[in-house]
Every structure is written in structure tokens, then in C-alpha cells.
Amino acid sequence: MYIDDVSPGYGAQPARSAFTSDALTLGLNGEWRFHLSPSPVLAPDGIEQAAFDDSAWVSLPVPSNWQMHGHGKPAYTNVRYPFPVDPPHVPSDNPTGDYRLAFDLTPEWLSQPVVLRFDGVDSCGRVWLNGEELGVTRGSRLPVEFDVSGLLQEGRNVLAVRVHQWSSGSYLEDQDMWWLSGIFRDVTLLARPVGGINDYFLHADYDHLTGHGRIRVETEATAWLSVPELGILRAPADSPIDAGVVEPWTAEAPRLYEGYLASDTERVPVRIGFRTVTIEDGQLKVNGRRILLKGVNRHEHHPVHGRAVPLETARADILLMKQHNINAVRTSHYPPHPAFLDLCDEYGLWVIDECDLETHGFTEVGWNRNPSGAPEWRDAYLDRMTRMVERDKNHPSIIMWSLGNEAHTGSNLAATAAWARTRDPGRPIHYEGDAACEYVDVYSRMYASHSEVDEIGRTTEIPFILCEYAHAMGNGPGGLLEYRELFEKYPRCQGGFIWEWIDHGITQLTPDGREFFAYGGDFGEELHDGSFIVDGLVFPDRTPSPGLTELAKIFEPLRITAAPQPGPTPTASPANRPQTSPHPPGGRPWSSLSVGVAREGISAGAVDNLRVRVANLFDFAGLDLLKFEWNLEQEGVEVASGPLDVPAIEAGQEATVQLPDLPETTRESWLTVTASLAKDTSWAPAGHTVAWGQIQVQAGTNTQQQPGDLTLGEFDHEGTLRSIAGIPVQGPKLDLWRAPTENDRYSDEPRWRELGLHRLQHRIISVHNGVVHSRVAPAAQDFGMDVKYHWTGNDKTLTLTVDIEPEGDWPCPLPRLGLRMALPGTFDRVEWFGRGPGEAYADSHQAARVGRFKATVDELQTPYVVPQENGNRVDVRWATLTDGDRTLRIEGGFDFAARRWTSEDLDAAKHTTDLTPSDWIHLNLDIAQNGLGTATCGPGVLPQHQLHAQKASITLTFRAVS
Ligand code: GAL
After folding, report:
1. Same domain, 718 and 789
2. Where is this region: Disordered (predicted)?
3. What does the pLDDT look like over 296-337, one tens digit per residue?
4. 499 in contact with ligand 1, CB cutoff 6 A
């Protein structure tokens, strides 16, 4: 049976590049007739016949995945095959979708050769036109063309396609994503004029020493190349062309020269980007320079359309990437829709194009019978690689080919590498599974810890990339800064690709009509991997998560810092890169946990002689696109601002820039220098912030409090605060618990629960003279916290100092260390002076600047697809909560979160719609929280970001403001 035959299929035309031309084309996308059968044997006979009656069928859009339209259901597994590992056989219960389309043709189609192209059919399709079988295709995310010359008819034609959910190809397509089926990419009829350009391979090299571009076109056609802008007019395509001095293509300045390749009968528009990729001195270089890959892994996913991603969504992805300083994409784990690559050429992204190949599920059976080493699968491997390389070879954005993902190793992979290297010597080969680097050109790893990368940096002799790192699942990733430091320290550590770009949640409705994003298990799958499918930097609807905001800061192409010493006028000097950057302002040493407010930032000393250092970390670009501005804020309120003249700084260089004299301030003040786009670009409007840096120019002062009677607060006989200035409150009391993040689930959470940190008991030891002494500990354990709440105040203020001392042996990091309290639900508008505007954690707070921010309590929440700890604001000097009439101000130095539910509610919820607002605003006022890490895949919280039980104290002052 063709379904479980290991061959790539039959009937297909040789693979060739995807291009448009002036030859006749007809898009066949649209509403097709559709019928789903539970298995091939139950599928109707004769669907290929023109006379077949499909009137009882339904209508289904092409392209689409049928499960996204109510036929069958999506199913998610990460590694495991959802069927027995019995290659190449697949279940008899193999959902089979029959498609039919009737379309009309004019006579001109009949006078020339024509191919029928499918850009993606998942997983196996058998195709007929006007009753004649064209062939069978496998390789879901790869194109296939069938020759239909001579089969077309004037007037009505009938195309029939039988698509099987499972096929032998499914063994090669075990990517970590939803199993979704159908004709999910475009279907097109393409005339192939006799004497036309059937295929071409345009090589456009850049010689960085001379600045010259060189073009070489491989084509079997007799053709000419014209690039009027370069003065190239009808140059014979079969001999190399010196294009003279050109502007090279880079991801930073994606210069494309438009031209066309023409034969007597066909004209093909081409976009030429001159660039040369090499490996020299053990480094991956483009145009002679080391590049640093600031990348993401991108799957094709849409919360409503599945893998049939609309073009505008693909463009939105690219715009968001560019706006967040991302410069590279790995097309995990299959070639994307071809239009995506056009956009990468146009907007500028380095691309690793990855073959549609993964056999990860064989790991469950010890890689027994893994296709990568089995000769019978060789054709299928070569076929897949060929179809990718041939389709995509003309994209300047693609700088490496990847053989696939997680298919272990074997001779078939080596064979595909050898083929690709011969076919395209201009692009290095990537594959993470070749750990010994026998047939790849770069050493690639996933989720290596920081210390391992450091070790690799010291020893590797070839370029090293992390094809996946910093698993962006739920709240996180933490530890990005420390990875960047390694990429800047070791020239051969050339960055990598965050896992991953998008949460693959699927939009669903609760019975009462509220929207939420579904993940594995939500469709009743017997076997599934739960929320591992939602691990992206953007939510399923492309809303950036805090992780993306943090990443944008980490990836900034400029570094703006305080220049330590005044000196002579601005001069350019080499940016200290590669370098070990010092811990930036904001590195939070938890060693001292006395929160009287240890302010972060660099104290710049004299306000009238301030200098900043601007380092250009682009690989190629200067600062021409940017403008610089400064502003001075006192307690978050702007005092002065102005433009900043920054000299031209070449890539890799830095300069020190003098600021104008600043007005004097009396309270805590920060200078912010911002680099933004000077004019509109294709990917963001003028004014878009690209990079910023902050310098503290005036320290804060602590307000002195007059002692008096504790009349602002009302306490009960146990010393528990009941109200402040008449506003009912609950707490404050010691809190150590947070709703575990998904990274916690893979690291500390099991231990936390086992020890009972989610169910602490509070025993009051004494209440005396404004001091409540208690012991806080989990049941069944002998360790605990000795806690003393000291209350002082008068009729205007109420001050609480909490002294905490661990007792016994605390065996693991704490989730958090702080206080929880609650206010009436009407106090739902917050303003604070501290870091913001977004959430931040010990190992993920570079993007949070010091300022004054406002938000409603609802806006403070981050709606992670799986509810978990979120919304923490750090280094807060004061915060106010108001109900519109009354305002409670809290001063001190603390991190805070405010939400309408408790940590326990967050912990219990499985989807955002499980969270029900209570009548209270629950506040956490913390000394610190444990970091985030990326333990879902990769290292947990680094030691310097772990929160351990230790002596600590916090002082908070409450006052009612009218
Ligand atoms: C990697 C894999 C990815 C994804 C990730 C975990 O092993 O290559 O596809 O599964 O782990 O989210």
C-alpha cells in the first residue's frame, strides 16, 4: 500500500526553485469539496471521476488543516509517536480526507506544458486530475509538482486529492507540535513555457576586500540577466558577471537589487542580495565578519488556522522580531511557507532553513530501527533535503542548511549533508544531532547550560551555536544575560536561537463563551504532552510576552552605559567585544537581604559632567538610522530632556559622549539615554526605541517618621492589622509561596510541595508593645522562620518592620520571601516608582527601567496560557493603590504583585478562564523571589539568582493619601 511505503512517493517532477514569472498561473486556493473518512478503507471509491457525486460533502477552505475546521481533532505529542513504533506502518484507523475541486480553464492553458504545484500536504496525498492519477506525495512541509500537460481540458477540470493523516512520512515528521492534516499550503497551476526558465540558481557573492559583487547563474535555459540598477543589461546568464562595487546584503541592511532573468519565452523577476558565507578562523562569517546570531526558533502556527498561517501573520512575526532586536530565525523544524523567506530577504533576518525531518519518537525505543541509518529510507531523506534546497536556494537570507532535527545520527543524514554541500558549496551545513561534527560545519547544541557553553567557548575549534536555548515556556526564560555574556566572551560562540517564537495554543471557547488557548490534552488525546506546546516568546495571538521584552533588551545592538571617568572629547575606540561584560546595573546580589532600599544603577557623581559610553554592537551597521535623546526624571517625573549628539560609531566600536549640564535635583533621579529610529523603516516607524541605558544621578532619601500612637492602623487583640485609615485589610503576614512557574515545575516545585511550603502554619508566640512575634513553618517539618512584626507610627503613618530569621535547616531555595496582604477589590488602580513598566524577576529584569508607572490591577497580570506566578514589579520605592476616592501609599523598598486572586488560585488554575476575581486585591510585598531559570529545558535558576532562607528584614510605611 502506498501509504506505508518508505519511498518519497511517485509521479513528482524534479524539485526546482520557487519563483514567480510572467508565465500563466492559476491559484487553486479557495473552497473545495471535502469529506473525512475514519480510515482509507472507509473512504469512498471513484472520487477521481468527474461524475462522482460530491454534493453530500462539505466545503473546506484550501489551504487549511481539517482539524481546525471541526473535522477530527488536533492532537499534541512532543517526542512520542501517537501510534506504535512499527516503521513504516501506520494505524489502520487513519483519518482520510478526500478533496475535490472543479475549475475552469481557457484554451491558452492547453497549448503549453503545465505543472500542478502543492506547497504543503500533510502527511500523504494521492492526486488525480480529470480521472488520471498524477502520483503520491509525502514530505508535508515541502512542495511537489506534477506534470499535467496534456491532461487539462478547456472548460471544466476536476482535481481530486486523497490525503491521509498518517503515512510512512509521519515517522520522519515527529516534530514537537500539533498533529494537523490536510492541504495546508497553496495549490497552483503553473504554465511552463517551452524555452522558459524552469529553474535557476543565482549565486551572488560579495568580496568584502574589494566591495565587488559577483553573480553566477546556473540554469539550463538560454537566458539573460538584467539588473538595470547595476548597469547589467541582458548579460548572458551562463557566464559569471562582475557587478562592480555593490552594497552587500546583511540582516542589518538587507540590500536587494531588483532585476530579471529572461529567456525568449519567460521573464522571472529576481531579487539579488550579495553576500558570502564562510567559515574562517573557526568562526561563521558573512562578508568577512563574524556574526552573532540573536535568533529565535519559529514554528508555523496560528491559534485559529493551525499551520495554514496567513501571509499577514508571517509578516507580523517578522516585524515583531525586528522590533525586538532579533536578527535570526531557525525555521524549526521544516521549511516555512516560501513567502516567509521572501520576507526574510526583504526585512533582513539570517535564516537557518531546516529540513522537514525529525524522528525523535525512536528515542522511546532506544533508537531501534531509526530511519536515519536504515538504507531503505535513504531516498526519502535525500528527497526531503533536495526539495528544500532546490526550493529555497535563491534566498540571500538563508545562510545555512539544516538537515533536520532530533533524528539521532546515521548514514542517511551524512548522505544528505554530502549532497547539499555539493549542490550548494556556498552554505554551511547545520544539524544538532551530529554531535561529533562528522558531516556538519558548525557545532550545534540545545539547552547547554551556561557553564557548559563556557567550557565549549574555551575549547571549540569550529563555530558553536545553540540551535535551541532559553526555553521560553511560561514565565521566563531567566538567565539570558549570562548567555549573552558568553557569546560576547568567546568569538566562536556565535549565539543561537531561543526556543521558541510562539505559543502554539489553539483558540477555544468555554461553554459560556469565554476564549482561552487550548494545549495538549484539551482535545481528549489519549497520549499527550500537555502544556509543552506553549513555550513561546509571544502568546498564540502574537501578543509579546514579558520574555520577548526582556529579550529585546538583551539583544540590543547598542550598549549605553555610564562612562566611568571624564576625559577628552568623543572619540571612537574598539567596543570591548568580545569581552566579559561586568554585571550590569541591576544585577541583584541576594547575599544581603536587608531591604532599606539598596538602590541599583551607577551613581554618576557630579551631575554637570556626565558622560555616557555608547558601544555599537551591530555586526555591520553604523548608527545612521538612529537618533539619540536623553531625559532626566526625578522620582519618575521628567525634569529635563534633549537630543544627544552621538558621533558616527562603526560596528564594533564605541565612543564616550558628554551630556549637557543637568539641572539639579533633590530626590532620586535617573538619566535615561534612548536610541530610536530617526525615520520610518520597513519594520518600525520613526521613534521606535532600539536601545536605552539608565544612570542614577541622585540617590533617594529615606523619610523620617515621627513616633506616636498607632492610630492610623486598627489592630485586633492578636495584633493583626484590620484596617489602615479605615480601609479594611487582610494581613500583612509572612509569605513564602508563589504559584509555581512551569520552570519551577521542572526544578524546585516538587520539593517545595513535599516540604509543604504551600501550606505554612503561623503560630503567634507573643504580642507585646507593638511587636508581634510568630513562628512560621510547614506541618511535619522542624525548620521554620522566626518572624517579628514591629509596628510603629502615628496618625499619619504606620510603619512595619519585619525581621525574619530562619531556624533549622532549610533544604532548598524559597519561592519567595515577603509579605502578603489584601485590600478591598475597589483598590484596583496602582501607581509606583520603581522598575517597570513590565514584570521582572531576579534573572529577567534587564528590560525593566526605573520610572513612575501606572496600571490597573487587571493590566498588571500577564495571561500566561497556563496560569502561574506573574506580574511581579521590582525595586519599588513606593506604590499607591486607589479606589478613586481613597489612596493607600506604601513606601519602602520591595517587589510587588497585585492580583484579584491568590497565589493558591493561580496555582490551581489550568487555563486563564479558570481564574475568577475575588472581592479582594491580593498584594505581595516581597523582599525577593527566586529567579526563573529555564528548567523546563535547560539550566535551572543560576546560583546567583537563587533565593535561600536567610536572615532578612523589610520596612514598609503605609499612609493614606487624600
Ligand atoms: C527540543 C526540540 C524542540 C522542542 C524542545 C522543547 O528538544 O528540538 O522541538 O521539543 O525541545 O520544547
Report:
1. yes
2. 562-593
3. 999 999 999 999 999 999 999 999 999 999 999 999 999 999
4. yes
Query: What's at 577, amino acid-wise?
Result: R
* Claim: this prediction has a pTM higher than 0.90: yes
Work out the pLDDT band at 608, boundaries 50, 70, 90.
confident
DSSP state letters, 225-277: EEEGGGTEEEEETTS-EEEEE-PPB-SSSB--EEEEEE-SS-EEEEEE----E
Closest CA to 548 of 328, 329, 324, 741: 324
Instruction: Give the domain-ending residue among 698, 722, 754.
Output: 698
Q: Whose CA is nearest to atom 4 of ligand 1?
A: 176
**Average pLDDT for residues 265-280, to the nearest whole number?**
98
Q: Do β-strands 952-961 and 594-595 pair in parallel, antiparallel, or remain unpaired?
A: parallel
364 is catalytic: no
- 173, 266, 390, 406: the catalytic one is 406
- Angle at alpha carbon of residue 310, lines to 305 and 313, rounded to 5°: 105
Q: How sure is the predictor about 780, in pLDDT bands with cuts at 50, 70 and 90?
A: very high
Average pLDDT, the chain: 95
Q: Output the residue whose Cα is nearest ligand 1's atom 10.
A: 176
Q: With a cut of 50, say whether residue 591 has pLDDT above it.
A: no
Q: Is the CB of 406 under 6 A from ligand 1?
A: yes
Helix (H, G, I), strand (E, B) or coil at 689: strand
How remote is the C-alpha of 805 from its chain's centroid? Answer: 40
On whether both 873 and 775 belong to a single domain, the answer is: yes
690 and 648 in a single domain? The answer is yes
Torsion over CA of 317, 323, 324 and 327, rounded to 10 degrees? Answer: 80
- Is 406 annotated in the active site? yes
d(CA 684, CA 475): 27
> Would the CA dihedral through 617, 938, 277, 198 be positive or negative?
negative
Q: What is the pLDDT of residue 106?
A: 97
Structural domain including 521 reads: 283-554
